Amino acid sequence: MIVLDGMAAAAAGGLHHPVVTLGVFDGVHIGHRFVLEHVVSLARERLSQSVVVTFARHPRALITGSAPMLLTALPHRLKLFEQLGLDVTVVLPFNDELRHMKPTVFAQRLFHETLGAAHVVLGYNNRFGAGGCGDFATLKAVGERCGFTAQELAEVRVGGQALSSTRIRELILAGDLESASMMLGRPFSVIGTVIHGAGRGRTLGFPTANLDLHHEVRPPRGVYGCSVTLGSVRIFGVLNIGVRPTLVSSGVVGTEWSERDAHEHVEVHLLDTQMDLYGQDLEVLFLTRLRDEQRFVDTNALSQQIAKDISDFRAWIGVRAPRS
Questions:
Q1: Which residues touch 24 (CB under 8 Å, ≥6 apart)?
Q2: Pair (12, 89) in one structural domain
Q3: pLDDT per position as a tens digit, 229-241
């Protein structure tokens, strides 16, 4: 998949009458997938290119000054777009110019002048342009004037419920990963960059990869069974989200705790493998919740519980064949 940054790069990208869609697509949930898969299918029928236009940051970051924690930060969305077979992603910076651009001007400039689109697909009730005033009728009128066709797809619902990234975010924060995964159409996952930690997991006998999640939403504190895909290999692991209460209470973290450990940590122990993953981006799929975060009497008790967590997850793997 080709990634083009901004309208100038898109205009110079050599696109030939592509099939295009537009949206933040945070979460790339079932409704998003319905739109994106339609774009891919239609482009293949027409022997054309499938193009998705998204934004480098959530529009609410500029409009309200406070963006929500994302279900899928940009690197995560790009990975999911590629898995769905998109040929090109155009990443627009959501800035003051775009924020105040009239819908008709935005549609003409992006779809006609920049991309030379043959066909533009919008998801149900998708809005664009200043104040979110642009809708399908706006797009269709611009297309008739500029020479591209337009299509709005029907609403997708799950279990009678409307799909929205906001609702999925609420479910994840509440710990209802099963319902969230149903709406996503895949196991809930996060992408994080492996960063250097203090090496305390190794001293306990269970080395971990510490993850920076790039402002992606995460479930409540606790221990989870998960899987990580490295190349063509899937590796199971046990992931912890929390503030390491046992290490704090037992003094293991020392005097530097207030500076280094006062925030929530996300760390994963991969089963049956030892790799130097520093600097790599890992996608972690949440498969099952093992337990809540707990404080143990000492680090020995903590190590014994981690061993039990791993044993419990191995038993879970043996009973159920998790889907990636």
A1: 54, 55, 58, 59, 165
A2: yes
A3: 887 788 999 999 9
Q: Across residues 248-256, what is the average pLDDT?
A: 45
What's the total number of domains in the chain? Answer: 2
Those residues with Cβ within 8 angstroms of residue 212's Cβ, 6 or more apart along the chain or in another chain: 192, 193, 195
* Distance in angstroms (rounded) separating the CA atoms of residues 64 and 92: 18
Q: Across the strands, what pairs with 209?
A: 268
pLDDT, tens only, 97-112: 888 899 999 999 999 9
User: Which of 138, 158, 178 corresponds to the end of one domain?
Assistant: 158
Picking from 253, 35, 17, 243, the residue whose alpha carbon sits closest to that of residue 112 is 17
Element (H, E) at 248: helix 245-249
Residues 4-16: b if buried by 16+ CB within 10 A, e if exposed: beebeebbebebe
Q: How far apart are CA 23 and CA 29, in angstroms?
A: 12
Strands (E), 125-280: 149-152, 157-158, 161-162, 189-195, 209-212, 222-230, 233-242, 265-270
Q: Residue 182 domain-assigned?
A: no
Using CA atoms, how far apart are residues 122 and 79, in angstroms rounded to an integer? 21
Between CA 184 and CA 207 the distance in angstroms is: 31
Q: What is the pLDDT of residues 160-183, one digit of tens each?
A: 888 899 999 999 999 999 999 999
pLDDT of residue 162: 86
DSSP, residue by residue, 29-96:
-HHHHHHHHHHHHHHHHTT--EEEEEESS-THHHHTS-PPPBSS-HHHHHHHHHHTT-SEEEEE---H
Give the range of the structural domain holding residue 16, as residue numbers without chain letter: 2-158
CB atoms within 10 A of CB 2: 15
| pLDDT, position 79 | 92
The interaxial angle of helices 177-184 and 165-173, nearest 10 deg, is 160
Whichever domain contains 35, its CATH number is 3.40.50.620
Tokens standing for 237? 């692991």
Provide the sign of the torsion angle of the four alpha carbons 23, 26, 31, 35, taken in this order. Answer: positive
pTM of this structure: 0.84
